[in-house]
Amino acid sequence: MASAVEKNYLLPFFWQHGAEEPVLRELMGKIQEADIHEVCVESRPHPDFCGPGWWRDLDIILEEAQKRNMRVWVLDDVNFPSGHAGGLIADKYPQHRRRVLDYVAIDVLGPDEHASFLIDSLLRHPETERLEAVVAGRRLDPGAEWECARTDVTDLVDLTGCVKDGRVYWPVPEGLYSIIVVYSHLLAGGSALLNPISQEAVACQIEGCYQPHYEHYGHLFGNVFAGFFSDEPQFACGGWSSLPGKDIPLSWSDELREALRERMGEDYRRLLPALWLEGDSGKEEKVIRYVYMDEASRLFSECFCRTISDWCHAHGVEYIGHHVEDNNSHSRLGPGAGHFFRAQKGQDMAGADIVMHQIHPGYAGISRHWHSAHSLTDGEFFHYGLIKLASSLAHIDPSKKGRALCENFGAYGWMEGVRLMKWLADHCLVRGINRFTPHAFTDSPFPEWDSPPHFYAQGNNPQYRFMGHLFRYMNRMCHLLDGGIHVASVLVLYQADAEWWGGAMLSQRPMRRLMQRQIDLDVVPCDAFRDESHAQDGYIRFGQERYGALVIPGAEALPGYFLMRLEEIACAGVPIYFVGKKPSWTTAGEAAMEPPGETVSLDRLADRILESGLADVKVTPVCPNLRVYHYCKEEEHYFFLFNEEKRSRLDFRINLPVKNPVFRFDVMNDRLFRQDSSEGCVSLSLEAGESVLLTTDCGTSFSCPEEPFRDGRRQKLSLGWRISLADVRTYPNAVLYREGAPLLDINGPDELPSFSGTIRYEADFQADDEDGGESGSRTADSIRAQIHLSQVYEIAEVWLNGKYAGYALGAPYRFNVTGLLRPGRNHLVIEVTNTLAKQVADYSSAIVPQEPGGLLADPELIYYKG
Fold first, then answer.
1. 3-state secondary structure at position 599
2. What is the pLDDT, as a whole number, of residue 771?
């Protein structure tokens, strides 16, 4: 294939609890045995981070890494999320805790010529609270409805300069008014997180976490010590939907105050109440809210990410990680960082994560209960938006060098076996991920209840012997999809700027419609067009990537500089599609001239792109759950296709933009086959959960065989089975459970509900000949056949007549038995290994439906001519 030397693309978390030295050394060996050559040391559960116990354990891990030619990353804090500064915020620098902006309102009925107000008395903790503004505003409601308290923010009066000796005197006009006292304060107690939009506060993170590691291991920086991983640093105020306009405290710092003053002059103080309160016109509050989010997210980028990345680069290591993206929080406050693309500026890889059942087969676009009756997932975001954010950043930001990292598999519970892991890996790969942080290895005793599954589980995971197959597959796929150019038809505008103003369509809505028609895309922020349009000769270009159209989700307002760039983009011959509507305003509150471009409905968007001839590939019939990723490297093309249907097979024809012969690469087993194709047209059939890599790269294997995976004559093997069981400790020795039995759910209520391990099925059968009778006239070598399994839970291996026919981690469960099948009587052995969820019933497994165990449907023997 394209490049001979395969590098390492996996860096799993290795959780630290202060285990004994032999345990750490053994686990480093087990990690290497799984064909992994880097680890990210997870510090969160360690009892002595940056103390003597930590340095002892990290010494051992680094020594083992040197011996095994491995590399080590370190998660950069004592606790989750990053931002505790190794405990310094709680113990040494409490003044650098998160600062938030809040308000108190005093209602007064005028006229009251002699009214005065005790401002300082409202601030009960002067050592941590600061007065930011005092503003008067007329109430728009009469005060009769107890849930209604709207203030006219178009006619606010700044009284801050009138405060004297803790009081303000203001003659109240006739009517109902509010005196709004805006103040900032440090968040007390809790997790003692630093203020991420304060340069001085972020310096504590370096002092408490980064510098101590350099002092101990500076001689290893840049080689064995690869770098640091930040885990979900955040604003940490409010929930998923936290934005100005909601009744919540808002992140604040001296830097943010000065940024607002520079953008809006001293008038910024008068408008501060509009960060919470609604008026009649709606324009002034939208401007201040937009400016607030614009500056807060910029400061998060500069103060947190840029400060740390500059330190790492100056010390010869890399800086990676991810932020909280869940349920659209990536462009908001709360657990988010305000702006996905800004928050990762300076990091060396784009990052995201899939944990805690965020993504599941069959739930694309479906909102479902998530960990409690009071929490719902935005299935459209998780399945269509999340991973595309990370891969898009890797594609459009040259500093990322095309590297997109996903932390995955974590906190799904023991129900998550290797089959689901492969499905999740394919979900990421087909969206452009080419680095993984699998979650996780742990040094703790079994069972560890914190965020399972754990891969090795101190020898208790019956599926661990298959993990190496999965990790080798993931590493090889990453290798093939790295170092080249991603091919996409469309750019979709990122939602942040429009959402901050209000009245915005989320980016994943048009993304979903495009991806359901195999129109690949990247997401781009307005920031990318700040200095130039990047458009020429009918394409928008970022580095080596190019896009034939720009799709803009419906928005009431967009930045003026971006709207100006649209003229240049249109003049360069790039089609522009506004989904639903065009903006009427700029985010500065000015009326917008009608921008160039076509307005299309959400339902018509994909058809319009296809009609324009912009799509890279075309699929018939329509297959909404088929995903396609096109990658070019060393003049060869790679097309990764994944059927994300939960239960249905897809039969389709795909037109690829190539003229050369097409090959089908079995990446799991490193085998290349000829694929029937004509001028790039390929007919395929993919089972639910099946993926395939098509390529024009045949390497040196010019005599590739045809893959015998076509429909042929079928013989159902309805047999009486000898069923034996082996747990992880006794395998491969199995104990007889049933003799001459039908297939059954081994974990059924009347069988063994708590059994985890391997179920072995043995039986004899007669092979048919071509005419349907017993095959007595043909030799074994002349019988081309495969065994097909369905309803398998979940890893399967097959032996025929004592010869190994292979393994399957998931769909398709097909085993080539050509050369193994004999005329007449044959002996078949099938082993199915289930998950630990049956034995270890954990919380994360309990919040999703449980699968049965073993083989539930009769195998089929499929004969092929030739």
1. strand
2. 45
Antiparallel, parallel or unpaired: β 735-741 and 671-675: unpaired
Contacts of 84 (CB under 8 A, 6+ apart): 77, 78, 90, 191, 192, 193, 194, 208
**pLDDT 10s digits, 761-800:** 999 999 986 544 444 555 656 788 999 999 999 999 999 9
Which residues touch 57 (CB under 8 Å, ≥6 apart)?
A: 16, 18, 19, 24, 46
In one letter, which amino acid is 316? G
User: Does 794 sit behind a cis peptide bond, omega within 30 degrees of 0 on the bond before it?
Assistant: yes
SS3 236: coil
Q: Which amino acid is at 717?
A: L
* Amino acid at residue number 472: R
**Among the listed residues 313, 435, 354, the one whose alpha carbon sits nearest the alpha carbon of residue 11:** 435
> Which of 698, 728, 753, 741 has its CA nearest to residue 856?
741
What's the pLDDT at 151? 74
Cβ atoms 673, 663 nearer than 8 A: yes
**Distance in angstroms (rounded) separating the CA atoms of residues 270 and 279:** 14
Which residues are 804's β-sheet partners? 799
Residue with tokens 């209520």: 749
Contacts of 173 (CB under 8 A, 6+ apart): 110, 111, 138
What pLDDT, on a 0 to 100 scale, did the predictor assign at position 144? 74
Rounded Cα distance between 61 and 273, Å, is: 53
Asked if residue 726 lies in contact with residue 30, where contact means CB atoms within 8 angstroms, the answer is: no
* Cα 234 to the center of its chain, rounded Å: 16
- For the chain (length 866 residues), average pLDDT per consecutive 10? 77 97 97 95 96 98 98 96 95 95 95 94 88 93 70 85 94 94 86 93 98 98 98 91 92 98 95 87 86 98 97 98 95 96 97 94 85 79 97 97 97 96 98 97 95 95 96 97 96 98 95 98 98 95 95 98 97 98 96 96 98 96 98 95 96 95 93 89 96 87 56 90 97 97 96 98 89 50 87 97 97 94 96 96 91 97 83
Tens of pLDDT, residue by residue over 701-717, are 545 566 555 668 999 99
Q: What share of the chain is helix, strand, coil (3-state, %, to 5)?
A: 25, 30, 40
CA distance 704 to 692: 17
The token duo for 227 is 């770098």
d(CA 158, CA 160): 6
CB 146 within 8 A of CB 174: no
Selection from 796, 829, 816 nearest residue 863 by Cα: 816
Is 17:442 a contact under the CB 8 Å cutoff? Answer: yes
Rounded Cα–Cα distance for residues 771 and 493 (Å): 61
CA nearest to 495, candidates 293, 355, 208, 678: 293
Instruction: Write the Ramachandran bin of 334: left for phi over 0, alpha for psi from -120 to 50, otherwise beta.
Output: left
Length of the chain: 866
